[in-house]
Amino acid sequence: MAALILEISTRGLHRYQPIESETTTVGRALDNDIILSDPTVAPHHLKIIRYGDDSVEIVNLSDVNPARINNQKLESLVTATLPVNLEIGRVRAQLLPRDFAVAPARPVAGSGGRGHLFGHAFWTVALVLACLVLGGLDFYLNAYNTFKWADLFKYVLRETVLTIGIFVLALSILERLLVNRWEIRQLVTTISLVYLLYYFLSNLAEVLDYLFSASWPSTQFRLGWYLTIIPCAIALYLINISHLKKGRSFLLAILIASPIAVPSILQSPELRALMDDFSSSARYQNSLSWTNLHLRDRVGIDTFVEQARRLEPGEFAD
Amino acid sequence: MLFRFLAAFLLLANVSPAPAAALDSKKIYQLNEDRVFQIRVLNRETGKKSSIGSGFIVGDGSQIATNYHVIGQVILEPDVFYISYIGKDGREGELKLLGLDVAHDLALLGANQPVGEAIRMSPLPPRGAPIFAMGNPLDLGLSIAVGTNGGILNQTDDSRILFSGSLNPGMSGGPTFNDQGEVIGINVATARNDISFIVPSRFLTDLIERAAAGDLNEAGDLKLEVARQVLAYENSYIDQLLANDWPDLNLRQFRLPGIISPTVRCWDNSAKLSAIARYKRYQIRCTNKNHVYLDEDNKFVGKLVYEYFWLESDELNPIQFYNLYQNLNKDQIESKMDRDIVSNFNCDTWFIEVSGQELKSNLCRREYVEYEGMSDVLFTAALTGYRDRGFFITLTMTGVDYASTLPLIQKFLEHSEWLP
C-alpha cells in the first residue's frame, strides 16, 4: 500500500497528515503522532497500523466517544480498501491513499479579469454607487413635497446604505463561519446586484399589475423573490464564490434565506392575502399608471352594469 | 236669564273645549310607573341579565313595546337567551316576540296575561313642546327625563324625533310622553350632551296592527325575517334615491351628484396640506344618517357613503404624481368584520367610459353569513389618462341587496359629467 494521508476536517477546513511510520497514534495527548485538540477526543483515541503495502488496521483505544470506523462502532478494522471514514470524537477524518484523485481547481471568482463583475473593486464601487443613485431616485419619485437634499441623504442612508450594510455584515459573518474566509468585496457586489434586481423587478411587477388589471404579477413576483430568487442567489454565491458543494450550498441557502423570507412574506400584503382565507378588506386592483397601458377593453356604462350583474358573491371563509 | 246664560256657556264649552291641564313630570311618572317595565334578556343557563332596556304596555294590555336592539340578542341566539320583564313593583314574567320593525328599531312583545292598562298614543306635539322620556337608566331604577321636542329629522328618513333631553343606556324602548301623558314616541338612542332620539309612535301603531294580523312567523328563523325587513327598507330607500332629482355638485373638472336625498349630508373632507406640498387635493364626503341597527356583531347597516376626490399638480412629474395618486386610491368600507359575520369580498375591474373620460373602476361585494341576500358593496372609479390630474369616486353601501345597488351606481356614473 502506498503512503497514506489522514485528512482531518474541522469547520470546513482540511488538514493533511502523512502516515509514514508503521504505527501512528491519534489523540489529544501530546505524545501522539497526530494531535487533535478537540475536547471530545480522548488522550489516546486511535491507532493506525500499516501492514506493508497491503493493508491497514485501525484500532479504537477509547471507551469515551469510541471512534466510528466507516460509520460503524468497531473495536478494530483491517482493510485494504481506501478511503476509510473516521469519526474521532466529533472530529471527522478520512484515511486516503496519497494518489487519491482530487477535483480540478475551481477558478477564483472574478479571475476572468477586470471585465468580470467579481473581478475588480471597480465593479463593486460602481454597483454600490448604482444602488445609492437608485435609492435617491426612489426617494425623488416618491417625494410629493418640496425636495430637500437633507431628506434625500437621510432616506438613502436609511433605506439603501443600511439595507445593504446589514446584509453584508450578516452574510460576511456567516461566510467566515462557514468557509473561514472574508470575501467582503464579492459579497458587496452580489448584494448590490440583488438590490438592483429587486428594484427593477418590483417596478416591472407593478407595470404588469396595471397591464393585466390583476394582482397576480406582484403576488407572483414577491412569492418568487423570497422563495426562489433569494435562495438561488445565495446558493449560486456559495457554489461559485465560496466554493461549497452544490447540495450543501442549496441547503445552506434555504437556511440563510428563511429568516429573511418568513418575516417578509408575513408582512407583505400581497402574500398575506394569498395565505389568509379571510380578509375584512376588499382586495381590489387599485394600481394606477401614468402610461395607462392596459389590456382590458374600455366599456360603456350599460355594458359595465350588465357585466356587474354577473359578479359572483364573495366566498365564505372556513 | 240664568238658564240662558248657562245654556250659552255649555254651548261654548262644546264648541271649544278647554285644553286639558298640562301634566308635569311628577304626575306623568306617577301615572305610568306601573306601566313601564325593565326589559331584560336573560341567559337560560345562568338566569342572569345579558342586556337590559325598557318597555311599556300597549295594545290589549298584554303587549309590551320596546326597541328591537334591546332584544336583538334573542334573535341571534334563541336557544341561549329569553326575554323577560320586571316592574317597579317586582312583577315579572317571560315575554314572547309578537312583531318586529327592524328598520325603525321596534319590537312588540307579549306577556302570558294582561299586565296593566295600555298607554294611549298620540301624534307629535309642536316643536319646542316639553316631552318626557321614561326608562331604567343604567339599571338604577325607573326615572323620567324632561326635555323638548326638536321635531322630526328628515336626515333619518323621518324615522327619528330629536329629543333635547338626556337618554341613557337602559332607557331604550321606554316611552316618551307629551304633557298629556300620551306616548308620542319610543326612546331609541343618544348622541350625548342632551341630544337624544325618539322613534315616532306612528311606527309602533303600524307594528301593533301588523302583529294583530299575525305577520311574524315566530317558529321560523327570525334572522330571515330581519334580513327581509332590512332589505325591504333598503330597496325602498334606494328606489327613493333613484326617483329623486339629484342636484349637481362641481368638483374641479367634474359635475357630480350632490346631496341626493334629505337623508344625506356632505362635508368638505379635504386634508390640510403642509405649505411644502407640491400638489392640491380636494375631497367631498357624503354620508346618510338613516342607518339600521342589525345586531350586536354588525351594529348598523344601511350606510351609504359617497366620496369624491380630486388631485392635481403642476410641479410633480408623471411618475411622482401617479405614485401619490395610487397611494391615495385605496378606500375601503369602514367596518371591520370577522369571518363569522361576512364573506370575503369578491372584486372585479372595468375601464368604464364616463362622459368621454376613462375611469378605472372596481366593484366588490361581500355577503352576510347570518342574513341571506344581504351584501356590502364597494365601488371605486379612478380617472386615467392624465399626467397631472386625478379623480376618483368611491361609493359604499352596507346591508343591501347587491342587485339593487347597480342602478344607483349606474345613475351616479351617468350623472357625472366632465367639464373641459
Overview of the molecule:
The complex is a heterodimer of chains A (318) and B (420). Chain A has 318 residues and is an alpha+beta fold. In chain A, 45% of the residues lie in helices and 17% in strands. Chain A contains 7 helices and 12 strands. In chain A, the strands form 2 sheets. A 6-stranded antiparallel beta sheet of chain A has the order 2-1-11-10-7-8, with no helix packed on it. A 5-stranded mixed beta sheet of chain A has the order 4-3-5-6-9, with no helix packed on it. Chain A starts with a strand and ends in a 10-residue tail after the last helix. Chain B is of the alpha+beta class. In chain B, the strands form 5 sheets. A 7-stranded antiparallel beta sheet of chain B has the order 15-16-19-23-22-21-20, sandwiched between helices. Chain B has a 6-stranded antiparallel beta barrel with strand order 1-2-3-6-5-4. Mean pLDDT of chain B is 90; it is low at 1-18. Chains A and B meet through strand 12 and helix 7 of A and helix 6, strand 20, strand 21, strand 22 and helix 7 of B.
